[in-house]
Amino acid sequence: MTRRADADLIAALEAARIHPLWDRYKKITPVHPDAPDKAAIWRWREIEPFAARAAAEVGVEDVERRALILCHPAFGAETVTTTNLIAAFTVLEPGDRAVPHRHTASAIRFATRAEGAVTIVNGRRCAMLDGDLVLTPPMCWHGHINEGAERTIWFDAANIPLVNALHANFFEPGSRGENAFWEVGEGDERLWQETGLRAEGHGHDASHSPRYRYPGAATRRLLDAAPVGEDGAKTARYVNPLDGGPVMPSLDCCARRLAAGEPTRPRRSLCSQICLVMSGSGRSEIGEETVEWSRHDVFTVPQWIWARHEALDGDADLFVVSDRPVREGLDLMRDELG
Ligand code: GTQ
Ligand code: FE2
Known about the structure:
The chain is α+β, with helices and mostly antiparallel strands. It has helices at residues 7-15, 25-28, 44-57, 160-165, 179-182, 216-225, 324-329; strands at 41-42, 67-70, 86-92, 97-103, 107-113, 117-121, 124-127, 133-136, 142-146, 152-158, 171-173, 213-214, 234-237, 252-258, 267-269, 273-286, 289-293, 298-301, 307-322, 335-337. The protein is built from 7 helices and 20 strands. The structure holds 2,5-dihydroxybenzoic acid and fe (ii) ion (FE2). Residues 101, 103, 107, 136, 142 line the site of fe (ii) ion. 2,5-dihydroxybenzoic acid is lined by residues 65, 67, 88, 90, 107, 142, 156, 158.
């Protein structure tokens, strides 16, 4: 290779902590986004035995959270599921309490096998019945307790990687011994559970949803009634009841129903998505990958990759969490149907 004419200049610039744009603009401004990760799947049948082992081998009183985070090798040693997001399963044995804490990252939990567990969010008791979504918005205190007789396991997702990339994570530990934290009722949550109604005189001045719990039964009813969307699936979007926007400024959640034998149209979106299989089984083609999934499996749809989904043997329901509002807020969102 011949030495480029400006090689001496480039070397001198670099030594002066100045980079020329002209020899590296393709790296700095690529012609299209390129997700670092391919689609990945974690199967419930592989996760469950680890949940049992973690429950047996790790005392909840010794750890912050007994959570198993699903990590994509494309991110090396980083604890990351897909760009900006982590997904995990958290395990509690009967009587276990996960210590209260709060942080600037936004998180959600979706109840898979959590009957008997309760999440307390800012003084509100939120039950975790099958299919319930519970929000833990930025800086809201939260702790979990298993009041039932069986092991509970639920799905979590959070935008911890995004918040860390922005060097914006603050974390405040709570105390284990504080009984007052656990001895609460529904609190103000009941003011926000009546769909289409708002209690006058009761304010809410945060940018996230005033409602923390979205019951699974309501989601399933809406999916029954909803029309099929342009992409071929039914979608029920979880919204902030005050403005119809996403539940939190940096996380979006929706439930999707795929009809048996009716594959969705290919779609690519400039956001990172994590899909939890609520019920049914099926197959997704995501870029070059084909993933076959069934109940409680988790798979990713990385940003800007064509994806189509198909239910096999009956309808299938997916819960999807994404960083879409972040992309929208930065005027970066793109969504295409093939
Ligand atoms: O339940 O508070 O999986 O803070 C990761 C971080 C769960 C939680 C996770 C968390 C939590
Ligand atoms: Fe947390």
